[in-house]
Amino acid sequence: TDAAPAARRVLLKISGEALMGAGQYGVDANTVDRIAADVAAVSSSGVEVCLVVGGGNIFRGLTAAARGMDRAQGDYAGMLATVINALMVQNALEREGVPTRVMSAIHMSSIAEPYIRRRAVRHMEKGRVVIFAAGTGNPFFTTDTAAALRAAEMDCDCLLKGTQVDGVYSADPRKNPDAERYEQLTYLEVLARDLNVMDAAAISLARENRLPIIVFNIHEAGAFERVMKGEGKFTRIE
Ligand code: UDP
């Protein structure tokens, strides 16, 4: 199967967890550099790339709410965590020589541009990697949903979800050796089997907009570029 046949523009979702590397919290500099090098390779191949970064390595609204924090307030804090990650990713990309812009869904004019859809498109047409920060700008959402939303708005050919494993499995392959990896799934299969890929809001949004989702292992060096050529392991959802 071709992952992203002749993709012209793609969105890569990088979770906060991916940025931790082997750590338990925060950002691992080597991991961010490696991911940035992979993004740089795809960007310099002529594909327009935009990114949505998560914040779960720093703060999650839901976790805070479980300990008694107001959910919406916790979610706003979580969105700010994604801005921290966005700045780290921007820095790593610029050291790779990639022109970038951070666009934040929450106005933070001293450090990021406000998110303006047409302006984001223009940046990408000029070869800049746009990093979308602060999720959707709304509490009760996730950065997975933000990724599906921005990918639809940017008219991306596909949404790539970089995870800790090389695709979608029937169970967690790190815990269950019998877990089976799927090559291909439909949106409805993901929802009906409650597969742990992206939340239901993100899957539904992708489905409504016929946006293919490609799940691959972000920790394998070069995997992003290989998947763009239809090589290596991944799961395609459409
Ligand atoms: N968040 C939010 N609205 C959004 C995106 C994110 O409220 O549109 C908050 C939410 O609290 C979430 C946190 O930001 O827990 C970090 O994002 P997420 O958990 O999606 O990051 P990831 O799991 O990708 O690291």
TrEMBL record:
Pathway the protein contributes to: Pyrimidine metabolism; CTP biosynthesis via de novo pathway; UDP from UMP (UMPK route): step 1/1
Q: Which UniProt keywords apply?
A: ATP-binding, Cytoplasm, Kinase, Nucleotide-binding, Pyrimidine biosynthesis, Transferase
By its UniProt entry, which InterPro entries does this protein fall under? AceGlu_kinase-like_sf, Asp/Glu/Uridylate_kinase, Uridylate_kinase, Uridylate_kinase_bac
Please name the GO terms that the record assigns under molecular function: UMP kinase activity
Q: Sorted alphabetically, which SUPFAM superfamilies does this protein's record hold?
A: Carbamate kinase-like
Enzyme nomenclature, EC number: 2.7.4.22
What's its catalytic activity?
UMP + ATP = UDP + ADP
Residues reported to bind UMP: 55, 75, 136-143
Q: Where is the Aspartate/glutamate/uridylate kinase domain?
A: 9-217
Protein activity control: Inhibited by UTP.
Highest taxon listed in the record's lineage = Bacteria
Q: Does the keyword Transferase apply?
A: yes
Main role?
Answer: Catalyzes the reversible phosphorylation of UMP to UDP.
Oligomeric state and interaction partners are given as: Homohexamer.
Q: Which family does it belong to?
A: Belongs to the UMP kinase family.
According to UniProt, the name of this protein is Uridylate kinase
The species this protein belongs to is Acetobacter sacchari
Ranked from the top, the taxonomy reads: Bacteria, Pseudomonadati, Pseudomonadota, Alphaproteobacteria, Acetobacterales
